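I am sending you the entry underneath: sequence plus C-alpha cells. Let me know what the C-alpha cell row says about the fold:
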Amino acid sequence: MNIYFVIILLTVVYGILIFSLIKKESFKKMIYLSISILFLFLFLQVKIFDNLGYPVTLDFPDKFNILYVKKIDNQFIVLVENISNNSLPRLYKLKYSKKLEDILNEAMAGRSEGKRIIGVFDNNKADNPYGISIEHIKKVVPAK
C-alpha cells in the first residue's frame, strides 16, 4: 500500500465527514463532532505510520541488540531490538561515517561468530557522532 494513497484517502474521508456535518447539524454539535473526528483521524494516521515499517531517525534506546545492518548510499539501515522494554525490533536510519561503519562491522562480525553483543548508546562520546559503542557479553555457563 502506497503511503501517499493512504494520506489522500484519509484526507478525502475526513473532508466528506466534515462536509456532511456542516450540512445537517447545529453549530455547537458540529464543533464537537468535528473535533472528535479530527482526533480520531490523527490517532489513526499516527498508528498507521508506526506500523508501516519505515526506518526512523528517532533516538536510539540506551541498550539494544543489533540484529541486522544494511548500507544504502550514504546511510545505514539498522534493525535494532530494545533490551530494556522488550518491544518489537525497529529500523533506524543513520548517516554514514567511517567510525560508525567500523563499529557496525565489528558488531555484525561478532554476531556471525556467535558472540553475544549489546549496543550501548552514550551521547557523551565525542569521536562517534551517534554515541554508539559495542559491548561483548560473556556467556555464563552453569557449573555441573
Notes: The beta strands are 63-72, 75-82, 90-95, 116-121, 132-137.
